[in-house]
């Protein structure tokens, strides 16, 4: 099944992605764009490593980082892998930035464990590290001898919980639901699946009959959705852990003439907002990608200046539905 004629230009050529709350002594909550320091700052080089730029979520993240570059007076180098699953390529990008002797690296890792050794090497070279979007595995970080890395993201569990609750609202008869997961080795994927499951299961009339990974990708989501509905044709609620997978699922459901299925996603991509306004999608979660990029660069700069930064910075999420879609 070829989807490329249907997919917007930004999705062509590959599967896509998107990008939890942690305890600790230092937690900062960011409700919206932060105030900007206008004082001149020493020249600082920051490398931003993202999963891909084929996903609009990361395009927005780069916009926020570029805004920080301009406003804070640093030099930003953006490095991206070919796709969400290109973990070895991300590792090489970190190695390249070590060779380039950047002062700091801001990374949205595609995998929560496999990037840790390369980041430990960067830290040993005196490079400051900031983790955004998908959290590095704390146990793996400790085992590698890497100091705890400041983390900036949303509470993925809470955001997905809102979407699950919304899908479950007003359901009074026995109803089947399904979940499309992201890459299972990614912390944000696990958090979103857990949050959505919790929100759905609060309604005792709902039974989650399938939870399968589509690895953040649109084509995989199409095929996995087809398989789920082949086994469970009674499913009426579907949560996708990112909007790209939600759009792939909607493509299948449209072709199958299953307009009776409520679909929720995550990321608030413009394509998802269009689907919501058209009535083909029920909800999505806005996690302020640009603000994550901005705050990542801003905190990296503070680290290079010897300042203390929060262990965790939480960006607020917002549930987007037909009632409040921009």
Explain this structure to me?
With 326 residues, this protein is α/β, with parallel strands linked by helices. It has 2 domains: 9-153 and 289-315, Rossmann fold; 156-286, Response regulator (Rossmann fold), CATH 3.40.50.2300. The protein has 10 helices and 13 strands. The strands form 3 sheets. It has a 7-stranded parallel sheet with strand order 1-12-6-5-4-2-3, sandwiched between helices. Helix 5 (156-168) runs parallel beside helix 6 and helix 7 crosses helix 8 (243-255). The two termini are 32 Å apart.
How would you sum up this structure in a few lines?
The protein has 326 residues and is α/β, with parallel strands linked by helices.
How does the SSE layout of this entry go?
Blueprint: E1 27-30, E2 45-50, H1 56-72, E3 75-80, H2 87-99, E4 104-107, H3 116-124, E5 128-132, H4 138-143, E6 151-153, H5 156-168, E7 175-181, H6 187-201, E8 206-213, H7 218-231, E9 235-240, H8 243-255, E10 262-264, H9 270-277, E11 283-286, H10 289-304, E12 312-315, E13 318-321
Parallel strand pairs: 1-12, 2-3, 2-4, 4-5, 5-6, 6-12, 7-8, 7-9, 9-10
Antiparallel strand pairs: 11-13
């Amino acid at each position: 099944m070829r989807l490329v004629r249907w997919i917007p230009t930004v999705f062509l050529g590959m599967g896509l992605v998107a990008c939890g709350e942690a305890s600790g002594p230092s937690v900062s909550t960011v409700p919206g764009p932060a105030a900007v320091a206008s004082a001149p700052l020493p020249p600082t080089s920051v490398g931003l490593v993202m999963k891909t730029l084929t996903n609009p979520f990361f395009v927005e993240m780069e916009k926020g980082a570029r805004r920080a570059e301009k406003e804070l007076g640093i030099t930003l180098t953006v490095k991206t892998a070919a796709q969400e699953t290109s973990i070895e390529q991300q590792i090489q990008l970190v190695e390249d930035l070590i060779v380039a002797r950047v002062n700091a690296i801001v990374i949205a890792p595609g995998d929560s464990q496999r990037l840790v050794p390369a980041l430990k090497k960067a830290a040993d070279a005196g490079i400051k590290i900031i983790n955004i979007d998908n959290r590095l595995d704390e146990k793996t970080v400790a085992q590698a001898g890497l100091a705890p890395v400041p983390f900036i993201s949303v509470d993925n569990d809470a955001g997905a919980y809102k979407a699950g609750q919304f899908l479950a609202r007003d359901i009074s008869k026995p109803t089947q639901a399904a979940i499309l997961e992201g890459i299972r080795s990614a912390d944000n994927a696990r958090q979103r699946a857990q949050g959505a499951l919790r929100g759905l299961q609060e309604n005792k009339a709902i039974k989650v009959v399938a939870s399968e990974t589509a690895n953040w990708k649109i084509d995989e989501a199409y095929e996995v959705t087809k398989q789920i509905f082949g086994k469970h044709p009674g499913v009426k609620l579907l949560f996708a852990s990112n909007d790209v997978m939600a759009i792939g699922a909607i493509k299948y459901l449209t072709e199958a003439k299953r307009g009776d299925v409520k679909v929720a996603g995550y990321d608030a991509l413009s394509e998802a907002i269009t689907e919501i306004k058209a009535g083909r999608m029920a909800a999505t979660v806005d996690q302020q990608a640009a603000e994550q990029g901005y705050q990542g660069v801003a905190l990296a700069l503070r680290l290079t200046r010897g300042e203390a930064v929060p262990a965790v910075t939480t960006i607020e999420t917002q549930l987007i539905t037909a009632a409040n879609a921009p």
